[in-house]
Amino acid sequence: MDVMPYTIAIPEAELAELRDRLERTRWPAELTDDWRRGTPVAYARRFARHWREDFDWRAVESRLNELPQFRVEVDGQPIHGLHVRSAHPEAVPLLLCHGYPTSFAEFAGIAAELAEPSGADASAPAFHVVAPSIPGFGFSTPLTGHGWDIARTASAFDRIMSALGYEQYGVFSEDVGAGVSEQLCLDEGDRVLGSIVATDPGAIATRFTPSTEHLTDDERERHEQLKAARAEDFGYLAVQTTRPLSIAYGLTDSPMMQATWIIEKFEEWTDPARTLPEDAVELDALLTVVAVSWFGRSGDGAANMLYEAAHAQVAWGRSHDRPVGMAAFGEEPLMRRILDPDGRLRYWNEHPNGGHFPAMEAPAELIGDIRAFFTRLLTV
What we know:
nine-stranded mixed β-sheet, 16 helices, 9 strands, about 45% helix, globular, Epoxide_hydro_N, Epoxide_hydrolase, Epox_hydrolase-like, Hydrolase
């Protein structure tokens, strides 16, 4: 396996084409500013204007290229990611697994600090950071075939860690990436030092929620309220896990389709105390995630990955002995009651702020949790 260095260099012709497509967007009727129907047209128009006129992709590209990157083929599938080695001799290899609908770009703001702790945290644990995009996401495109489900992705990531020279490593994950980290714990044994997962209240309002038989009547009522509040949030999942190609045409052809598809999730899944997506995540950081998805043409890849995950054969009931911790973002007492009712996890910490994208919403808190988990793990 040849791991090759990679530099992002979007051709000028693609930037010009993007500006033209944004200028020629055909807009829906502007009937409401209610986010319950999706991204409102007035908001989308402002976002498009900022993307077209004010967003400096070349500056963003330059900042991303300050972080060492790689590109490798695994079973014929291109996989791209960050590989930021620490100068500290005791640094721990750390695999970062993103979720939907982001990519390696979600971790661009924390990779350097994890690798080279600075300021008051200069003596904190350091990590060799590896942050690949899941096949179909970011620049891990194009998809070259079917079958890239969670298990196959986990296997590919483990092979990449070996190719980079890491015999053991820790994992941080969230959302779909949490499935990848769980698979790594199941399949790779002692190669995985431990896994810390970021979670938020949405994680206990899905069909994958663990058993709730131990809850009190009041807690069950609260849980039903959480599920009801999220009931209409899963339209994106229903489409992509059944007809990914149908939505892929729009995501691939229209930058505003791709943008609003992602913006909607940031509005719904970030800290509910924040009114607009850019109140939770800096606007250009959000636009970077959108732009990487557009330039990587990863809308269809992400949709197909969700389809594969939904239709894969899963070996339920398997267990592992790898240490697991959780960092919970968003104030919801039921998270621990459902996800760690017996207090068996090696680490649990809760933050009242933040949401589904902690690396972008609450980076200092997330970095603190990652450091604390692996410090506890490696000093026992």
